[in-house]
Amino acid sequence: METAKKANPIYFFGIVLVMVTIIAYTFTDTGVKENYEEQVLKFRTENERFFREQQGSPIEDKTSFRGLDYFEPSAEYRILAVLERITTGDSVMMQMSDGKKETYGKYAHATFQLGGKSHRLLLLKHAEDEKLFLPFADQTNGFDTYGGGRYLDLTPERDLDKLMIDFNFAYNPYCAYNKNYSCPLPPRGNFLNVEIRAGEKDYSRPEKK
Q: Residue 31 pLDDT more than 50?
């Protein structure tokens, strides 16, 4: 009997820690940078604990779970983007990994510089979530990172014209660990022509005995 598809949680354990880290830490001196990196590593440790121990984890066989792989934290991928707010109430039908579609509201376009190029990403907002959802793909997909792209969860800041995007907190959709989940695929406009060597790498499944 085929296993029923599960609803994909856009966001998993650790959002409060992530957002506090993003807002509170800068790279103005070495001490602050080291503290920031410690916070990134702490966030990752908490994520692994969730995956290994909690009922909501997408890992089916937790006894064989060997942890998650990440790039080293890098200030290069912590970027202040300029926002172009979308106030028309437009929405987009997101393609899901199981062939279905789901509606998300268009919140803004985020423009930033990386790798000597200008990039533009669409920020989305689910009707049931106050957070912003950023699904994206880049040149590492299918190599160092999951082929289906990665996600970021962000919180709007007081300055509605700018937003800190920290790719060090990029994470995989649950489909990377368990094919029974239905996950939003990054829209074509969110394909970055650059390597984002930050955040979570592809998941290495343990070999079956």
A: no
